[in-house]
């Protein structure tokens, strides 16, 4: 049994294994590096892998998978790879696990047994329709191209006040509201950036209401990746209008499948998604580990 990084000479072999196509795509797209990809092998067979990446300086487990149920193999690969990433100067790592993956609970157990803490539980909603012809009747919109980055970050900071999203609250507690807003803006930019799609919302009397950030993952799949209403404007049903604008933008640009992940305690957004025919797809756990 051997644990090592993926090397250039592995590429041809891995490209012939269907389950490694995701890893190779992450390397090709610059989302990870060879030295951040770890495999465990035995008798020239790959038994598992862990791929790390960085989004806005935050270390993320982008891919984790095992073909062996041997827990000692799994623990050793996880522990050795974490030590190497810590030696690279990282202080924290997080992992997002979706319940629709095979052996979901096995991966949750492995991570928590190795010190990861579940910091948030989310519902993952999916919208898949042939067309969408709704428009907001309450709001008008300005794109990010019509305002400055600082103005947009200001609104992210404002909509985070009193948020029901546990992860956002945790970031505000750790870094302060301004830095948390800047970090989130940069994370979103790294995922997909189209200034015409990022919208600020206003009433017809020009009062700021909130924002919505629809983003594209590929030519078919996208997400409402950030949405928020100012604290003083909540309770007026504006979140549904923001969703309508996000869906409209994605659908008009060829996106047929739209994802929305929300904190399980975000009841207003849950209701709005249901009203717009989003269906619950699965649940998602955010797990974090302090490496210090």
Brief write-up:
With 292 residues, the protein is an alpha+beta fold. The chain is 34% helix and 32% strand. It has helices at 11-15, 21-28, 71-87, 104-113, 149-159, 166-175, 177-191, 238-252, 267-275, and strands at 2-5, 37-42, 45-55, 58-66, 92-98, 117-128, 140-143, 199-202, 208-216, 221-229, 257-263, 279-290.
Tell me how many strands there are: 12
For this entry, what is the oligomeric state of its chains?
single chain
**Shape annotation:** elongated
CA-atom Rg in angstroms: 20 Å
The overall pLDDT average reads 91
- The number of helical segments is 9
Report the sheet-strand fraction: 25-35%
Give the termini separation. 28 Å
Following the backbone from N to C, one meets helices and strands in this order, namely EHHEEEHEHEEHHHEEEHEHE
Task: Tell me about this structure.
The chain is of the alpha+beta class and 292 residues long. Helix content is 34%, strand content 32%. The chain has helices at 11-15, 21-28, 71-87, 104-113, 149-159, 166-175, 177-191, 238-252, 267-275; strands at 2-5, 37-42, 45-55, 58-66, 92-98, 117-128, 140-143, 199-202, 208-216, 221-229, 257-263, 279-290. It has a twelve-stranded mixed beta sheet with strand order 1-2-3-4-5-12-6-11-10-9-8-7, sandwiched between helices. Strand 3 and strand 4 (58-66) form a beta hairpin. Helix 6 (166-175) crosses helix 7 (177-191). It is elongated, with a radius of gyration of 20 Å. The mean pLDDT is 91.
């Amino acid at each position: 049994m051997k644990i090592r990084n993926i090397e250039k000479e592995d590429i041809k072999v891995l490209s012939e294994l269907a389950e490694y196509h995701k890893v190779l795509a992450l390397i090709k797209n610059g989302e990870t590096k060879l030295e951040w990809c770890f495999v465990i092998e035995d008798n020239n067979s790959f038994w598992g892998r862990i791929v790390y990446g960085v989004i806005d300086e935050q270390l993320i487990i982008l891919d984790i998978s095992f073909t062996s149920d041997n827990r000692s193999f799994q623990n050793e690969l996880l522990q050795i790879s974490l030590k190497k990433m810590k030696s690279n100067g990282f202080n924290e790592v997080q992992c997002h696990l979706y319940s629709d993956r095979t052996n979901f609970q096995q991966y949750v157990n492995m991570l928590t047994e190795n010190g990861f803490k579940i910091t948030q539980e989310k519902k993952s909603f999916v919208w898949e329709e042939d067309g969408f012809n709704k428009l907001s009747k309450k709001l008008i919109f300005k794109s990010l191209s019509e305002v400055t980055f600082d103005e947009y970050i200001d609104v992210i900071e404002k909509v985070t006040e009193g948020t029901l999203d546990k992860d956002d609250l945790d970031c505000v507690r750790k870094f302060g509201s301004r830095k948390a807003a800047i970090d989130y803006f940069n994370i979103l930019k790294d995922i997909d950036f189209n200034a015409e799609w990022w919208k600020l919302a206003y009433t017809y009397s020009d009062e700021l209401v909130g924002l919505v950030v629809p983003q594209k993952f590929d030519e078919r799949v996208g997400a409402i990746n950030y949405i928020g209403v100012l604290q003083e404007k909540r309770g007026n049903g504006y979140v549904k209008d923001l969703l309508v604008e996000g869906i409209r933008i994605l659908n008009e640009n060829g996106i047929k499948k739209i994802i929305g992940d929300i904190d399980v305690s975000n009841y207003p957004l849950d209701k709005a998604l249901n009203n717009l025919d989003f269906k619950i797809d699965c649940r998602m756990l955010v797990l974090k580990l302090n490496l210090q």
